[in-house]
Design a protein that fits this description.
The protein has seven helices and three strands. By secondary structure, the chain is mainly alpha-helical. The chain is globular, with a radius of gyration of 16 Å. The model has no long low-confidence stretch (mean pLDDT 85).
Length: 126
């Protein structure tokens, strides 16, 4: 099994948000045992555990244990990654979910078996 990874694009977007909320770039990168050069390559990947270390450290430095939730509310998916942009331009929710499933591994490769969808629409109340 491969180590789960996140796109550097997503890590950079979260870093910028956390810094705008008062976190130190250096402290965040140090918590993940990374330096800025790890995020510069166009197709760079970051271990999921390193990204989670950044999120946890940001919560402490910003005094906001729910910083990841607040980030998700404040920043549109299209601003976080190209995958978010693809989903945001879909004509219907069904098409958006299909496109998100098609490209989800670009953002987070969590080692799901091939053909496994990460997202689904489930009807509720008819």
């Amino acid at each position: 099994m491969t180590t789960p990874t996140v796109s550097a694009e997503m890590v950079t977007a979260f870093l910028e948000y956390a810094i705008s909320r008062g976190a130190s770039r250096e402290a965040l990168l140090e918590s993940a045992q990374r330096d800025a050069s790890h995020l510069d390559a166009a197709h760079a990947r970051v271990p999921l555990e390193a990204y989670l270390a950044i999120v946890r450290t940001a919560g402490v430095h910003c005094g906001d244990p729910a910083i990841a939730l607040h980030y998700g509310v404040a920043i549109a998916c299209a601003q976080q990654s190209v995958v978010g942009s693809i989903g945001a331009t879909a004509a219907t929710p069904v098409e958006a979910v299909a496109q998100l499933n098609r490209f989800a591994r670009l953002n987070l490769d969590a080692g799901l078996p091939p053909g496994t969808d990460r997202f689904a629409l489930e009807p509720a109340r008819g």
